[in-house]
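Hi all, posting the design record for the shared folder.

TITLE: backbone redesign
STEP: 1 of 1
STRUCTURE INPUT:
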């Protein structure tokens, strides 16, 4: 009985030893096969896009200057402050402007008084005093005319008598002198009346009107200077023309305002924009309002969606078409000057198998892939569609669910046995562990003893 146990144990040990050799051979055989990685063929979306680069800029930038030179009195903001349109930014010193305005006000009031005096003079030209003077001259003219007529009649009568010898030469001369004096007096009265009622009156009226106009012009000039001073007072209080964030501050209270730099810069960063130049191949494929993908690596949110808000109808000097993309930046993650990549779609595909571009082999005018069927690499010719550079669309030659070799495909041949070590990114257990000789003998002895 004891001998029988020994024989059986030896036999069992021999069997197990032979079995261990078989397992080792299987492991060695498995390890000699080409290791590959596969991915399940599945329908998906693919896009071929043009990529253009540009820098991010704010929707609107306001460079705020002061129209008033001089000393800065007070500054109300710092870099990074949020301001609304109309909010105060800084205040210029206005003491000299206010002093000048006070002097102009006094001069203006004096000019208005001069206007009133000139208007009074103009009114007096046609007033009661002038009319009374004209009436007196008119009465004097009538009296002189009557005296002249009487002297003329007396002269003519005396001349007749003189010719008849009834009066002496002396009487004749006296009558003639009286008539001549009366004529002279009449002419003087007429001249005085004509001057006062005619050219002289009009000349006086013209002079008076000119005085009124000159006084009014002086008043108007002073009024304009006052308005300018008042505007300067208003301009000295500098406010923000837009809502946004203060990104630059080059003013300091108590110092002379510099003319070499912009005092304050305010940027509206609620909406940012990226300006790019696109080619003629792209410009007719895009439209206003189109949504596009924008990548900004430096931003907290690197991938954002933008909207095309401007497309230039003509090419620039570089032969490119200027395009502007607007990005919502309510969170403030996108900063001015960041580098952005704009992806403009060239073509898109859906409901077709999409593979990594490297999975497809192009050789001798063929395009093909390898799939794993029953442990073998099987060659499949394919027809390709959209090629994005990293992915490719497979139109024919594959069906969903097939295991496409995506790594190791360049080292296999059609119908060659392969070993799949990773599938859809998951590592697989490929071979069993070969038992050692010591463990085989121990297991065999145990089993034999158990018998």
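Okay, here is what came back for every position:
SEQUENCE:
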């Amino acid at each position: 009985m004891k001998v029988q146990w020994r024989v059986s144990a030896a036999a069992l040990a021999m069997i197990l030893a032979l079995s261990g050799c078989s397992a080792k051979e299987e492991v060695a055989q498995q390890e000699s096969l080409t290791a590959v990685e596969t991915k399940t063929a599945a329908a998906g979306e693919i896009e071929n896009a043009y990529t253009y680069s540009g820098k991010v800029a704010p929707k609107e930038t306001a460079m705020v200057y002061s129209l008033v030179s001089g000393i800065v009195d007070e500054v109300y903001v710092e870099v990074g402050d949020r301001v609304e349109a109309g909010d105060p930014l800084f205040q210029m010193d206005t003491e000299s402007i206010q002093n000048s305005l006070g002097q102009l006000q006094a001069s203006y009031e004096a000019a208005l008084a001069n206007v009133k005096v000139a208007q009074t003079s103009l009114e007096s030209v046609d007033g009661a005093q002038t009319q009374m003077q004209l009436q007196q001259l008119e009465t004097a003219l009538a009296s002189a005319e009557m005296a002249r007529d009487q002297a003329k009649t007396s002269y003519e009568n005396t001349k007749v008598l003189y010719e008849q010898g009834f009066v002496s030469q002396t009487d004749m001369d006296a009558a003639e002198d009286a008539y001549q004096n009366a004529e002279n007096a009449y002419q003087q009265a007429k001249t005085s009346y004509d001057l006062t009622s005619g050219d002289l009156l009009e000349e006086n009226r013209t002079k008076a009107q000119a005085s009124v106009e000159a006084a009014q012009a002086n008043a108007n000039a002073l009024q304009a200077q006052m308005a300018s001073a008042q505007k300067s007072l208003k301009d000295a209080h500098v406010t923000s023309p837009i809502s946004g964030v203060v990104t630059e501050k080059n003013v300091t209270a108590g110092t002379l305002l510099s003319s070499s730099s912009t005092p304050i810069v305010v940027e509206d960063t609620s909406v940012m924009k990226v300006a790019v130049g696109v080619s003629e191949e792209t410009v007719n494929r895009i439209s206003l309002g189109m949504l596009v993908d924008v990548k900004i690596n430096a931003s907290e949110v690197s991938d954002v969606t933008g909207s095309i808000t401007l497309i230039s109808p003509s090419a620039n000097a570089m032969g490119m078409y200027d395009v502007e993309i607007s990005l919502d930046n309510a969170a403030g993650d996108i900063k001015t000057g960041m580098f952005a990549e704009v992806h403009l779609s060239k073509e898109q595909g859906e409901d077709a198998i999409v593979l990594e571009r490297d999975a497809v082999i192009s050789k001798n005018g063929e395009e093909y892939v390898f799939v794993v069927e029953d442990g073998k690499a099987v060659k499949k010719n394919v027809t390709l569609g959209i090629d994005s550079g990293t992915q490719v669309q497979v139109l024919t030659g594959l069906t969903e669910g097939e295991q496409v070799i995506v790594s190791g495909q360049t080292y296999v041949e059609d119908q060659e046995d392969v070993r799949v070590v990773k599938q859809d990114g998951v590592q697989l257990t490929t071979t069993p562990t070969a038992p050692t000789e010591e463990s085989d003998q121990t297991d065999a002895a145990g089993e034999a003893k158990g018998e």
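COMMENT: The domain at 32-46+350-427 is CATH 2.40.420.20 (conserved putative lor/sdh protein from methanococcus maripaludis s2 fold).
Let me know if anyone wants the other runs.
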